[in-house]
Design brief:
The chain is α/β, with parallel strands linked by helices. The chain has nine helices and 13 strands. Helix 1 crosses helix 2 and helix 6 (about 265-280) crosses helix 8 (about 295-310).
């Protein structure tokens, strides 16, 4: 500080006038991701994190609603890097998403980084990333997953903050959003504080302007959203539907629909369970019943407990069997086979 420089008072605004300085929320993807926001998409392995990241990138590049629900008011190019997925897997997923939305992938400004490795903790690699951003001018940058993008100690806040500072600088310099896919701890907390379950330094949770978390709940996923400056939507169920011979694979809000031949009511399900058990040549397991009847595990468990309580089923070592029918004891006196005279 120059000792001879005049002292300038700090800027001050009357509290009531702050409302004139507050702009309404601006979205890259409405209610899911802030415009020019950085953040984490977290979840356990095999929780469809990469699939959701692709859905977001495709939505931004095409201007079509993410998850067929959340509008994209500021569409633009997207640049993605998937360190764990081979290019044929990325292409297959994109083809299926485009088929579902009736899009032509060849016409979209969606760019895929393809180096065998990428290190966001190295100066030379950071310059290469910045050059790609200058070239393709993405509105969204997706990096998946964080664990494959560095060799730092994820539990060291100083090392982690240096990497996050670089990504924040990219966001501010080039007006883009940055989505970093990351793993959660085993048995981490769920719900609104799902970010506390992220692996490594708590700086990862604090860094995000928008964060998304996926966790498995029985037969579907639960998507939880956090925003720094906006109220998030309530947690919502999410399912991966389609694939193979059932149409293009895509993520869909809501629990998976029941199979066409699934019993529609508890009464029908109980009758179907009894029929399956009766037809089985040996005691049948719960998993076999579930696969045969196409019902959720929780719902099947409730019906099995009811049937056990009603003494219609018994639990044995190999699964479930019908309750043995009681053998009636013949009434000897009434049948006349025992005609002893009463004692005098």
């Amino acid at each position: 500080m120059n000792p001879g420089a005049p002292i300038v008072p700090l800027p001050v605004v009357r509290a009531a006038d702050l409302r004139h300085l507050v702009a309404p929320p601006r979205w890259l993807v409405e209610r899911l991701w802030a415009l020019n926001g950085v953040g984490v998409l977290g979840g356990a392995p095999k929780a469809c994190k990469s699939f959701l990241a692709l859905d977001l990138a495709l939505s931004v590049a095409s201007g079509t609603p993410c998850l067929d629900t959340f509008a994209v008011p500021t569409a633009g190019p997207a640049l993605v890097y998937f360190a764990e997925d081979p290019v044929e897997v990325v292409l297959s997923r994109l083809d299926q998403l485009c088929h579902h939305r009736q899009l032509d992938l060849a016409t979209l400004p969606l760019w895929v980084l393809t180096p065998p490795s990428l290190r966001v903790d190295l100066d030379a690699e950071q310059r290469r990333i910045e050059l790609a951003i200058q070239t393709y001018k993405p509105r969204l940058l997706v990096l998946d997953p964080f664990v494959r993008l560095h060799r730092i100690d994820e539990n060291d806040a100083g090392q982690v903050s240096g990497v996050l500072a670089f990504l924040r600088t990219l966001q501010r310099t080039y007006d883009l959003s940055v989505l970093l896919v990351h793993h959660t701890k085993k048995n981490g907390p769920a719900g609104q504080q799902a970010g506390l379950g992220l692996r490594g330094s708590s700086d990862l949770h604090a860094w995000g302007d928008s964060n998304l978390y996926l966790r498995k709940v029985r037969d579907h996923l639960m998507l939880t959203v956090e925003h720094r400056a906006s109220r998030p939507p309530d947690p919502m169920p999410l399912s991966l539907v389609g694939g193979d011979d059932h149409g293009p694979a895509h993520l869909q809000l809501g629990e998976p629909p029941p199979a066409p031949n699934a019993p529609s009511s508890p009464q029908n399900l109980a009758a179907a369970v009894l029929q399956q058990v009766a037809q089985a040549p040996a005691p049948i397991s719960r998993s076999a019943l579930r696969a045969s009847l196409h019902v959720r595990n929780e719902r099947l468990g409730e019906v099995l407990n009811d049937l056990l309580a009603e003494h219609k089923l018994v639990r044995v070592a190999d699964g479930y069997a019908l309750q043995p029918t009681a053998i009636p004891i013949p009434c000897i006196r009434e049948c006349g086979e025992w005609n002893e005279s009463p004692a005098s």
